[in-house]
Amino acid sequence: MSGVYLVKHWLQDPSELQRSTFQVTPLVGNPRAVERCVRYVGRDLNRTFAAAFLNTKASDSDFYEIQRAQEINQIFGPKGSSQAYDFMLDLHNTTANMGSCLLLKSEFSLLSIHMCNYIQKHCRVRHCPILLCQLSGEETTFMMSVAKHGLALELGPQPQGVARADQLAKMRSIVVCALDFIELFNKGTLFPAFEIEAYRPVEQKDFPRYPNGEISAVIHPNLQDKDFQPLKPGDPVFQNFDGEDILHDGDDTFFPVFINEAAYYEKKIAFWKTKKETFAQPALQKTF
User: Fold this and answer.
1) Is 92 labelled a binding residue?
2) Succinylglutamate desuccinylase/Aspartoacylase catalytic domain: which residues (predicted)?
3) 133 or 281, which is more confident?
4) Which of 61, 73, 97, 123 is 20 to 30 Å from the Cα of 226, by its Cα?
């Protein structure tokens, strides 16, 4: 709820968002869910910005989030058009120990990844890992895909339905830093080339399950809260209800993220497996 309360504050007092070269439009993405203190009413809004939903006339029988996605697409898009907003910051919290995670579509999102580099170097918030959130071959269905460029924030751990002062302050600092970057970019600042580390999802890992589909083991205590830390062959991953450890039996080392995320239980995801990569990025400067 950090983003929700920040947006509500900025709707009352937008002075913190004001810059000389652009305007910011704060918006609560899913107001009905906020009223009920739930993640969504009918379906996950942040998985509803696919063309199949945006380009089909919504009916009264559709989930509220489909109608809301179309409204947001009309305000900030249309998605993929020249009229779309230049940049969108999408503010999220997570129950997983993700730190102050910066999510972008891919390493080819040059403006967004330069913003990430700027945040990592200039924001007082520490531990801002970069996650490339689009799985290979998948359509981008996140809200930020409506704009030409985007960045999502995933700050945690924070329980669902609450706002923690420490997480809210971190999110606020990152947003201010991101807006400062856009201001500098618009004024023609040259951002030099750099190398940067990012984490690329390779697989979504489910919990072990009984034949009837019920979970038969939980995240191992040694893995809990170890997001972005290497999981090596032979390391414990799960622990069943008899106390037996289930080990990583592959021969690869990977970096799990969104470990034991509450929102992913319904999606049958215990964590995402990622690999850490280093990318060289060219310099960036706005042309006039």
Assistant:
1) yes
2) 1-181
3) 281
4) 123
